[in-house]
């Protein structure tokens, strides 16, 4: 047997660690193409496509359906990926069902007001923790700081520009939500989060889509008007 037959071909970027990183990047940046992921990871597009193929076969990611294109394009468009519901569960760890059961018990024994109160109290603590770290006065920079804090807490957040509106606007996108499965049943969690964003950024924000509602990301419109002074600890974020 020759040395070529014995020694396996080892390709940079192979392994479960890289595959997990690909999944996390799809959550953070999706819809995203293999070429974009390859540039970020410093790998070849072929290596990234192998990981994407495995993740797609496992059902943890899916090809994003952007709907009918406004203008016909020549050639086949690049496949762009988002994390599936199954993939969100894999990113979320093993306590999502326990959280949902606890909130069902709270609603059954104490009613809707208790659930809303829990969501508000939980998010007030997050607002209090974030408020001192949002030091920027520029609205765009402040949104970027909020995205960084959310990402550190597992929300795979990013800020993306919006073309077209008369008032300069950005979108805060969260590719993962640690409490998604509970929020699918208890919208109070999402509502409290949006109120917390408004408070932290000092401006009215508009929630356009949520993972809990079936979108591939939670998307919040943020107008880039100078922020008012945050109120501090009145309400919270998820």
UniProtKB/TrEMBL annotation:
Classification via InterPro entries: ArsR-like_HTH (IPR011991), Carb_Metab_HTH_regulators (IPR050313), WH-like_DNA-bd_sf (IPR036388), WH_DNA-bd_sf (IPR036390)
Superkingdom: Bacteria
SUPFAM superfamilies registered for this protein in UniProt: Winged helix' DNA-binding domain
Record-given protein name: Suf operon transcriptional regulator SufR
The species this protein was found in: Isoptericola chiayiensis
């Amino acid at each position: 047997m020759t040395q070529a037959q014995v020694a396996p071909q080892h390709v940079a970027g192979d392994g479960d660690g890289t595959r997990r990183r690909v999944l996390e990047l799809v959550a953070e940046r999706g819809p995203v193409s293999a070429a974009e992921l390859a540039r970020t990871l410093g790998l070849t597009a072929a290596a990234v496509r192998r990981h994407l193929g495995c993740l797609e076969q496992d059902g943890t990611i899916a090809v994003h359906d952007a709907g009918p294109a406004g203008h016909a394009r020549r050639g086949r468009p690049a496949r762009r990926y988002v994390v599936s519901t199954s993939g969100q569960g894999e990113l979320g760890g093993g306590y999502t069902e326990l959280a949902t059961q606890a909130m069902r018990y709270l609603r059954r024994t104490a009613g809707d007001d208790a659930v809303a109160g829990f969501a508000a109290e939980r998010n007030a603590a997050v607002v209090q923790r974030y408020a001192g770290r949002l030091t920027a006065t520029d609205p765009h920079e402040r949104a970027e700081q909020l995205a960084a804090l959310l990402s550190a807490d597992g929300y795979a957040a990013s800020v993306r520009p919006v073309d077209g509106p008369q008032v300069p606007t950005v979108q805060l996108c969260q590719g993962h939500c640690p409490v998604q499965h509970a929020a699918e049943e208890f919208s109070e969690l999402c509502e409290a989060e949006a109120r917390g964003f408004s408070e932290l950024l000092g401006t009215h924000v508009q929630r356009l889509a949520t993972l809990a509602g079936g979108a591939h990301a939670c998307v919040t419109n943020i107008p880039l008007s100078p922020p008012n002074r945050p109120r501090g600890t009145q309400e919270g974020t998820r």
